[in-house]
Amino acid sequence: MFGLFNRIPTITTKQLEAELNKKPTILDVRMPGEYRLGHIPGSKNFPLNKIEQYKGKTEDKLYVVCQSGMRSKRAASALQKKGFDVVNVRGGMNQWNGTVRGGKL
């Protein structure tokens, strides 16, 4: 169906945590309600169902995260087809042990 199967690079949540000091562009593709329950500091909420409308800079590396890694993989694939440099965060927020914004009262 696609002709070329471009493998999407993946990193672990630990590797992403080590990158946070570089202020990476992190797209959280979960629904807004999930995002509000807790997200990686500095991440932008851009739900998977709207990913086709994403208008970032194609030269910026995008780290894509969701709850488990499945939606982010689909989002990363769609973004890669549009020319973005994407990295899927394997395991998503289920594996994230770093600082979380929101969600806590």
UniProtKB/TrEMBL annotation:
PROSITE patterns assigned: RHODANESE_3
InterPro entries: GlpE_sulfurtransferase, Rhodanese-like_dom, Rhodanese-like_dom_sf
Classification via Pfam families: Rhodanese (PF00581)
CDD domains: RHOD
SMART domains linked to this entry: RHOD
Domain Rhodanese: 20-105
One GO molecular-function entry: transferase activity
Keywords assigned: Transferase
PANTHER family cross-referenced by the UniProt entry: FAD-DEPENDENT OXIDOREDUCTASE, SULFURTRANSFERASE YTWF-RELATED
Name the UniProt record assigns to this protein: Rhodanese-related sulfurtransferase
